[in-house]
């Protein structure tokens, strides 16, 4: 009745094991309930499915929407609350949700072109900056989101994993990343609600605003932290070209957002190394290209 790609099924089994199998078996019933509950007609899932099932749909008025059914990652409550709090400012609007089935109905962003497709990198960075300016807002009391400091505990787990050593991480680079993360976290500006994973594939062309974001993690931290994911994505492969692009991105975003250049650069470096560790935790994979990027960022 509903299209669930085999590749996505296998990915769920790899990431979630028995829980993934049980969720895949429930997924058709979850989607059927969405159709009945909200008067939707569910269409074809998007081709770039990764961690969750995301599909095009239309509502009872024939308007295009998106249905996102969350796999058992445990992230749904935070993502849903982040989307709700952003309330359409810089973000696709939340239209309906169900906490039991962990599913959301979201505004469909059209034409939906990824920011990644913009060939002019300066134009792309300006588009991302316009989204950031709309997103950031005070954190409400009792918000359920992790803090930047919580995410930084990944460095502790890294050291424990390698029995106090550095494993495949270059020793000097890891030590620099740890030091910078601690210094920056201890001197943060007033924290705001951040997207937490704002890169070129999570920003789409839309109609009510040129660019809007999707898929927030929900994170509490200073604005300069947000830029790290944007810096390390969609880069040229050669180190010399990377350094040139990174230097320009850091300068441009510091100017357009009114943030300190050095904090942007240092957060970017520390986050890059931390993101490689997350790859080890989640996929048992060392992303060497991200370590190369971190080295490049340390030299600009």
TrEMBL record:
Top-rank taxon, per record: Bacteria
GO MF assignments: phosphotransferase activity, alcohol group as acceptor
GO process terms (BP): secondary metabolic process
One Pfam family cited in the UniProt record for this chain: APH_6_hur
Stated name of the protein: Hydroxyurea phosphotransferase
């Amino acid at each position: 009745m509903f299209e669930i790609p085999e590749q996505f099924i296998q990915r769920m089994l790899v990431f979630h094991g028995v829980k993934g199998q049980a969720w895949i078996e429930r997924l058709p019933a979850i989607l059927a309930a969405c159709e009945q509950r909200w008067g939707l007609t569910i269409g074809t899932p998007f081709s770039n499915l990764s961690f969750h099932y995301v599909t095009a749909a239309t509502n009872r008025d024939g308007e295009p929407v998106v249905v996102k059914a969350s796999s058992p990652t445990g992230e749904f409550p935070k993502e849903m609350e982040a989307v709700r709090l952003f309330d359409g400012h810089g973000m696709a609007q939340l239209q309906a949700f169900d906490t039991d089935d962990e599913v959301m109905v979201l505004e469909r962003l059209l034409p939906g072109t990824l920011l990644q497709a913009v060939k002019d990198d300066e134009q792309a960075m300006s588009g991302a900056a316009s989204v950031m300016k709309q997103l950031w807002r005070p954190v409400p009391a009792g918000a359920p989101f992790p803090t930047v400091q919580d995410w930084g505990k990944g460095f502790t787990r890294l050291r424990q994993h390698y029995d106090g050593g550095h494993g495949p991480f270059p020793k000097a680079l890891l030590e620099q990343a740890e030091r910078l993360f601690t210094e920056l976290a201890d001197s943060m500006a007033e924290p705001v609600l951040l997207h937490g994973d704002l890169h070129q594939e999570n920003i789409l062309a839309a109609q009510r605003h040129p660019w809007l974001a999707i898929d927030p993690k929900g994170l509490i931290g200073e604005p300069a932290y947000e830029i790290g994911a944007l810096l390390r994505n969609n880069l040229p492969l050669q180190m010399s070209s990377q350094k040139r692009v990174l230097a320009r991105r850091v300068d441009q975003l510091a100017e357009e957002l009114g943030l300190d250049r050095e904090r942007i650069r240092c957060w970017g470096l520390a986050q890059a190394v931390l993101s490689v560790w997350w790859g080890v935790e989640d996929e048992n994979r060392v992303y060497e290209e991200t370590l190369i990027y971190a080295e490049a960022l340390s030299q600009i």
